[in-house]
Amino acid sequence: MKTGLPNTMLSVETSPVSVQDAKRLFSDWKALPALVLAVSGGPDSVALMWLAARWRKALKKGPRLVAVTVDHGLRKEAAREARDVRQFATALEIEHRTLRWRGDKPKTGLPSAARDARYRLLARAAKSCGASHILTAHTRDDQAETVVMRLSRGSGIAGLAAMARQSDRDGVVLARPFLDVPKARLVATLEKAGIAFADDPTNHDPRFTRPRLRALMPVLAAEGADARGLVRLAMRLARANEALDVMTDGAERYLASIGGDAPMTGFDLAAFAALSAEIRVRLLMRTINRVGHEGPAELGKVEALLEAIDQAVSGNRPAAGGARLKQTLAGAVISIAKGRIQFAPAPPRKRQMAGLP
What we know:
The protein is of the alpha/beta class. It has two domains: about 5-235, Rossmann fold (3-Layer(aba) Sandwich); about 260-345, Uridine Diphospho-n-acetylenolpyruvylglucosamine Reductase, domain 3, CATH 3.30.465. It is about 50% helix and about 15% strand. The protein is built from 13 helices and ten strands. It has helices spanning about 5-15, 20-25, 45-55, 75-90, 110-130, 140-150, 155-160, 185-195, 210-220, 225-260, 270-275, 275-290, 300-315, and strands at about 35-40, 65-70, 95-100, 135, 165-170, 170-175, 265-270, 325-330, 330-335, 340-345. A six-stranded mixed beta sheet has the order 3-2-1-4-6-5, with helices on both faces. It has a four-stranded antiparallel beta sheet with strand order 7-10-9-8. A hairpin with a 2-residue loop joins strand 5 and strand 6. Helix 6 (about 140-150) crosses helix 9 (about 210-220). The longest helix is centred in the last third of the chain and has 33 residues, at about 225-260. The radius of gyration is 24 Å and the shape is elongated.
């Protein structure tokens, strides 16, 4: 099979992760008191535990490592896989905990709900053992798939920037040391060491979106959109997103300086209308998420809100101060009156009493 990569690059792309590689990959977190390792039993996470254990043993002083496996209760094999992880963790002299996702499982949106439950349980485990960071085994392949998935859903710049090396979630930091490492290198690492790993069949189940998109990746790569290119795109968009966030910070400070709102709950309409569309979208998103109680607001709905604001303003020119509008979005009420856009928490939704229509 032709890959378009020179043989030397192919060897690098598929070579095992060395001790020196691991030292570089984990170096950002060597001064922390504790680290939680998210280990499912698949090749990526087993390689994470194996490499982290070797890295930690080479340090005179380093973080306490705690491996955590989440059993979602969706497959009968999951309990056995958790036991296998525990056995391997014990051999590596790493603490291990198995956490279970209990309760009813949703009939729709199961992958998303399972992911949320996993991070929630991991965060709980991290806080209980004094760890501020959770290391996950997301690879360059995962990053490329995330870009394609979000592209298929029409995500904005922030979404297409995909996963960051570090991000906050549920009060802890998710850290991804392998985000620029091909999955093939992790598999090669385990094969060289003679370490077994599990294969979750849901990773190949076409009922779910990610496995369907994963099956398309070789086709995209043949057209030049390989994992390296997609990850490069994500990196560039992350850079652009960071710059736009800085510009939005400046716009927010400017609007606050002329409006006197602290914390900001409103904008001068004329000053807001003079900003570029992307900055206005971001300002609306920030303020709605800050004031509302049903967030985060969806990008498409915020864009529709901006369009309604623009229409309200254009319909009242030259006297834009006469524009009026009132909408509710993500638990926030957005209104225009007397030349200002105001934001306030929406009243709680009325719940129907049980048994009544």
